[in-house]
Amino acid sequence: MIRYIRIPKRSSTSQWGTVISDRAGGAPGTATDSYESLARLPAVVYKLGHYGVALGVYAPVVAWLLGRGLAALALGGGVVLLWLAMLPDLDTQLPGMSHRGLTHTFLFALAVGVAVGLVAEFAIAPTVGQFGAVAWVGVPGFRTGLGEFGFLIGTLAVLSHLLADVITPMGIRPFWPLWGRSFSLDITPAKSTVANYVLLAAGSFLAASAALTSI
């Protein structure tokens, strides 16, 4: 069950040793809304969990593309998806931003999707071709291209990251700036080695199963 995170009246220290703000609806990504730093987490293990969720989210797309004989597009999309899966955590490297702020919102997911779509349409497609992307949707009369596919991949990459983060106690504020409420499924801490390996195994299994059953 989804629960709201109650922000305390006074700033307090979380189990990871950083300050949590008393602002329930303020803009994320500010000094007063700081979350725990990833510096305390085993970086490689933490990334594996996100990669696993990304693969699981991408599995239906893999099945769809392979069913239409678009293996190159499926492979290329998967590579880009995994490359972008950790992009939201760029906020840990930017001055003035705290973890799980602006870069962990639906707005950021759409922005990344647009950026990737533009690069795919105007930089990649004219150089290396469409990789069959004009037919990837498979709806008669509905023409698409590598730009639309790039938008899907960029958006899914960020959404998969948010999905992995929402199961942790810290949660995310995905609807900012329209709504500043935090959401968390509170299933496992982000630093859990077991949970991250389970996510990687589950996502890999789903992606591999989708590929094998679609060939």
What can you see in these coordinates?
This protein has a two-stranded antiparallel sheet. Strands 2-3 form a two-stranded antiparallel sheet. Helix content is 48%, strand content 4%. The protein has five helices and four strands. α1 packs across α4 and α1 packs parallel to α5. The termini are far apart.
Keywords:
single chain, 215 residues, mainly alpha, two-stranded antiparallel sheet, 5 helices, disordered N terminus, membrane
Beta-strand fraction estimate: under 5%
The computed structural class is: mainly alpha
Counting structural domains, the number is 1
Number of strands: 4
The tally of helices reads: 5
Q: What is the terminal-to-terminal distance?
A: 37 Å
Q: Identify low-pLDDT runs.
A: 1-24, 29-39
| Largest sheet, spatial ordering of strands | 1-4
Report the helical percentage.
Answer: 40-55%
Rough outline? globular
Radius of gyration: 18 Å
Order of SSEs, N→C? EEEHHHHEH
Question: Quick summary of this structure?
Answer:
The chain has helices at 43-66, 71-84, 106-128, 146-166, 193-214, and strands at 3-4, 12-13, 19-20, 183-184. With 215 residues, it is mainly alpha-helical. The chain has one domain (39-214).
